[in-house]
Amino acid sequence: MKTYFDCWAGVAAALFSQALAGEPELAESLPKPLGAGSFGMAVTVAGDAEGRFAVLVDGSILETPLVGEGMDQKSGWMELLREAADAAAGELLVKTGRKCQVVKYEEIVSESQVSRAFQLRTGQRAWTILVRDEVRTPEPKVAPQVDSDSDVEIAAKPVPETEDRQSPGAAPSAFSPGLELLLDVELEASLRFGAREMPLGEILDLGPGDVVELDRHVADPVDLIVGDKIVARGEVVLVNGNFGLRVTEVAAPRKRLESIRCLF
User: Fold this and answer.
1) pTM for the complete prediction?
2) CA-to-CA distance for 63 and 35, rounded, in angstroms?
């Protein structure tokens, strides 16, 4: 089902293409730090979907008169961001029937973390736009089931965790005797964004500016690798100008321990 972010992405792509000079295209990309002078807007959404939604734009975009010659570029951009936020709420109602509205607007110059990243491209120029999406749809309350014969309430039971997955923050299972001695050992962890098989000839022909397309969509989770094992998955974020990983899925401790076998 479509989310507020999905609606914003569609609305923003259409709005920027129509309202900005050069009919630029908006497409998702990997996040990267913005330079000095970045600006943006954070809005608070309330209703059937609620939370904070922030958009941060590369400040160098103000050097190009995309909102019109002789116009105040920053004011024009702030109005566009506000219009996109409002239109996304309307689009969510049309697509899903969920009612929400923007109840607060706030100008921002930075964000400590981001959820998604886009590139706005026109001609040979491209600018980064970062999004932090904290808008969520509250879970509907589950009414207790009643046995019609005995009038005894049957409480809804939570779904247990699977054997090989563990929610973030869950306490690990008890370690086997002696394993505590290894807990301070430092291991190298890496992120895998995707992969692709290539003929040797294509690899030898690679040069600066070439683009290698991977087998993973930009919205798909990335893998956290230790040894040769996947120990977690999540989404890429920016933390104080550095790449980070917001963990959304973790392997059970037993699976994570398998990743160190080849290191000893």
Assistant:
1) 0.58
2) 13
